[in-house]
């Protein structure tokens, strides 16, 4: 497959060296075929401890935190080296994450690699020191300077659904800021992370210990990383349930937590919108990568009078999406990541039926696919916003249609969720759209098909969707500390 990732197994990156895992190796599986692709190094607790020690030493004992120009050069070098391996990375991402090939041209691979350049530029242009001028607090004339400094050692813990996007959206800003990073990727996608580790070790000048990557089959290693007092911050993306555990355990060492968690986002269609077009768009987008996107709009809120029209349009769009081989150029809906994840989605479909919902289209496994963790794109109607499938994150190609009684009611329903990650609004009147957008308690909103994802645009959630922002200047500043120096004049 590649000289850096072979079926014999990948390596951990610890202290600048590519090393085997103390716990041996574990399988990585192609979710489209259920075939074992090969092995990844399985880190044990001693490996994690060594990785944290290396990251600590790189932060405390080298110039990395104080040399933004060098960091910018390293980030561009990493970007260019990754681009040099784009095709191998693409094949690994499709095979290991089940990511449709067409998505690797964007957020699954090429976009986050390119985004490293944006963070390199920011490291150079950022205003690290600000003169606040003189003041006379308590009668002492003092000149004040504000310094922004890297936060220290970052423990980065990531999920499997967009492995490169999420790994690089942590590495890019953290490294630009001058932090050092121990990355613990999801057990389902170790190769995507290990490959980056191999490139860092062999093709960049990133100093030893600045990035350490520990692949592991054991979720407990993530918990251990959170508990480690040598780690200054945890940057976590994953489920709200795990995020809660991370936050609770980080409290013991009072470390900063940055959390990107789950979502149950709403697409609001106003009564002056093209109802059928908006419903088709929402239906199609929930099928992308088999619905395994935290910010996908999985609730479709439509005017009550147009409910049947919306259901018909959404059902038609979903029925036209055939789950298939992610290798094929035309596939947008590949497999779910694992048998466990498919069982979870199917359990939610059973709950929807038991609560009285109607499965308008889908609801089963696609015909002709006896291997791979596929499910049919599924549209559910006839359930209120309080139902289980309208409240809980399913993480599959499942859309729930709910009628609303006007703009204010749509906002109320959209906000009636423990999550607050993202959303969409479709309508014709800019004033009405503005009022609806203002009422939504969510971190990103797409209006009439607008796309918010980009390196300079902060992304993150309200409520139980998280704390903090990823990407943009706000995402970079998550990895900074603030030091105020007052000098008597
Ligand atoms: P998960 O929470 O099960 O696991 C995420 C990571 O946490 C993995 O690396 C896992 O090994 C690790 N982990 C597990 N238990 C841990 C613990 N106790 N302490 C520390 N680390 C631990 O999530 P998942 O199933 O891998 O990913 C799917 C979830 O991720 C969905 O809920 C989805 O919404 C969310 N997600 C959120 C965003 C976002 O930006 N908001 C993006 C992608 C995915």
TrEMBL record:
Q: Where is the active site?
A: 260
Residue ranges constituting the Aldehyde dehydrogenase domain according to the UniProt record: 25-485
Q: Which GO terms describe its molecular function?
A: oxidoreductase activity, acting on the aldehyde or oxo group of donors, NAD or NADP as acceptor
State if Oxidoreductase is listed as a keyword: yes
Indicate what this protein is called per its UniProt record: Aldehyde dehydrogenase
Q: Which UniProt keywords apply?
A: Oxidoreductase
Q: Name one Pfam family in it.
A: Aldedh
Its family remark reads: Belongs to the aldehyde dehydrogenase family.
Whether Chloroplast counts among this entry's keywords is no
Q: Give the source species.
A: Nocardia terpenica
């Amino acid at each position: 497959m590649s000289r850096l990732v072979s079926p014999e197994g990948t390596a951990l990156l610890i202290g600048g060296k590519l090393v085997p895992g103390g716990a041996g190796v574990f399988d990585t599986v192609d979710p489209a075929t259920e075939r074992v692709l090969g092995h990844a190094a399985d880190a044990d607790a001693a490996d994690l401890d060594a990785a944290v020690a290396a990251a600590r030493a790189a932060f405390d004992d080298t110039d990395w935190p104080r040399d933004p120009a060098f960091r910018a050069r390293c980030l561009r070098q990493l970007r260019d080296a990754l681009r040099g391996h784009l095709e191998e990375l693409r094949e690994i991402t499709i095979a290991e994450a089940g990511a449709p090939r067409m998505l690797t041209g964007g957020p699954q691979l090429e976009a986050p690699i390119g985004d490293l350049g944006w963070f390199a530029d920011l490291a150079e242009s950022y205003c690290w020191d600000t003169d606040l001028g003189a003041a006379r607090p308590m009668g002492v004339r003092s000149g004040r300077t504000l310094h922004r400094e890297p936060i220290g050692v970052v423990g980065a813990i990531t999920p499997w659904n967009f492995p490169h996007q999420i790994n690089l959206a942590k590495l890019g800003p953290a490294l630009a800021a001058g932090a050092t990073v121990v990355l613990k990727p999801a057990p389902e996608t170790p190769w995507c992370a290990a490959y980056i580790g191999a490139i860092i070790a062999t093709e960049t000048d990133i100093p030893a210990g600045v990035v350490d990557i520990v692949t592991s089959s054991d979720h407990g290693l993530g918990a251990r990383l959170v508990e480690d007092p040598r780690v200054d911050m945890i940057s976590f993306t994953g489920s709200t349930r795990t995020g809660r555990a991370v936050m609770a355990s980080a409290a013991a060492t009072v470390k900063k937590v940055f959390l990107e968690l789950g979502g149950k986002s709403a697409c609001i269609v106003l009564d002056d919108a093209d109802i059928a077009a908006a419903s088709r768009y929402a239906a199609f987008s929930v099928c992308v990568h088999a619905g395994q996107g935290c910010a996908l709009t999985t609730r479709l809120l439509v005017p009550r009078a147009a409910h049947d029209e919306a259901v018909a349009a959404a059902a038609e769009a979903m029925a036209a999406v055939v789950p298939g081989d992610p290798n094929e150029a035309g596939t947008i809906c590949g497999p779910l990541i694992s048998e466990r994840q498919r069982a979870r989605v199917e359990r939610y479909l059973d709950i929807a039926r038991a609560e009285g919902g109607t499965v308008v289209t889908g609801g089963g496994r696609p015909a002709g696919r006896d291997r791979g963790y596929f499910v049919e794109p599924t549209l559910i109607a006839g359930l209120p916003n309080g139902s289980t499938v309208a409240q809980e994150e399913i993480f599959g190609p499942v859309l729930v249609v709910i009628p609303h009684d006007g703009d204010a009611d749509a906002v109320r329903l959209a906000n009636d969720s423990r999550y607050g990650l993202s959303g969409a609004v479709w309508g014709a009147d800019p004033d009405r759209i503005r009022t609806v957008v203002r009422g939504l308690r969510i971190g990103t909103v797409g209006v009439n098909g607008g796309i918010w994802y980009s390196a300079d645009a902060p992304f993150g959630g309200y409520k139980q969707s998280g704390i903090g922002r990823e990407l943009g200047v706000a995402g970079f500043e998550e990895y900074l500390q603030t030091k105020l120096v007052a000098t008597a004049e």
